[in-house]
Write a structure and sequence with these properties.
It comes from Natronorubrum bangense JCM 10635. This is Rhodanese-like protein. The chain has 267 residues and is α/β, with parallel strands linked by helices. It has two domains: 6-120, Rhodanese-like domain (Oxidized Rhodanese, domain 1); 147-254, 3-Layer(aba) Sandwich (Oxidized Rhodanese, domain 1), CATH 3.40.250.10. It contains ten helices and ten strands. It has a five-stranded parallel beta sheet. Strands 6-10-9-7-8 form a five-stranded parallel beta sheet. Strand 2, helix 2 and strand 3 form a beta-alpha-beta unit. The longest helix has 12 residues, at 90-101. The mean pLDDT is 96.
């Protein structure tokens, strides 16, 4: 697993005193304050970097708003950010995607969540002292970004692109993009350890779904949260041609895009 994308708890545990490793807890503020957190972590709740008012594509909060969040958290552009939640990493993965989109070079997902960390390492209720920074975001260009729009998705449907739907079965059967395969994002997680499955197991699992590195892959869900997790997993495994449909099915349906319904044989 590529450590520039996903890091294990023991990797982080040996770097808690490194001033350039900034740990971000994206759970609700009451969880951060009341339950405890990874030592040194700052609180940037999920709702604070998600905006459904069309300020930017999909639910992105806008570069200025995101930069203000990182400034208040004392984070600088050169820092290595490690994000976590307590929901198998799906909310933290959305933070990772958002930070990458706004130009932060080194942001990683903690393999596992708060509960997984708590099984092996200490936690704390102490809030670190924060010195605000003047963070300036540098959003990726449309050419650099993995995010794709409606028109690009329509074009991809005309090619041999593989559309991957990361939602639940009932959602998939109610409406999906034509030809899509379903890969529930949670399939990548080991329920017992709360961490990602092994690299070999993940590769075998993805292969069973036809999700292979040689394919052009387009990810979607409803509002681009769940695909963030799958996107990070594929990046950690070295997949290179992965597009991220930020508008997802919500935008597709709003524009009367063609859909398929019903169960799929052998699903």
């Amino acid at each position: 697993m590529d450590e520039s994308v996903v890091v294990a708890p023991d990797w982080l545990a040996t770097r808690l005193e490194d001033p350039q490793i900034r740990i971000v807890d994206v759970r609700d503020a009451w969880e951060y304050e009341g339950i405890g957190h990874v030592p040194g972590a700052v609180s940037i709740p999920f709702d604070s970097y998600r905006d459904e008012s069309d300020v930017d594509r999909g639910t992105l909060p806008g570069a200025d708003a995101f930069a203000a969040l990182l400034s208040e958290a004392g984070i600088s552009p050169d820092d290595t950010i490690v994000a976590y939640d307590d929901t198998h990493g799906v909310f933290a993965a959305r933070f990772v995607l958002t930070a990458l989109e706004y130009g932060h070079d080194d942001v990683r997902l903690l393999d596992g969540d708060y509960s997984a960390w708590n099984r092996a390492y200490e936690t704390t209720s102490d809030v670190p002292e924060i010195e605000p920074t003047g963070y300036e975001a540098e959003p990726l260009s449309r050419e650099e970004s993995p995010l794709v729009d409606l028109e690009t998705v329509e074009d991809a449907l005309e090619r041999d692109a593989l559309f991957v739907d990361t939602r639940d079965t009932h959602e998939f059967e109610e409406a999906r993009l034509p030809g899509a395969v379903r890969f529930d994002w949670r399939e990548a997680v080991d329920d017992e350890t709360r961490r990602l499955k092994s690299e070999a197991d993940l590769e075998a699992l993805l292969d069973e779904h036809g999700i292979t590195p040689d394919r052009e892959i387009v990810l979607y869900c409803n509002t681009a949260r769940r695909i963030s997790h799958t996107y990070v997993v594929l990046q950690a495994l070295g997949y290179e041609t992965v597009a991220f449909y930020e508008g997802s099915l919500t935008e597709w349906l709003a524009h009367d895009g063609t859909i398929e319904t019903g169960p799929v044989v052998d699903e």
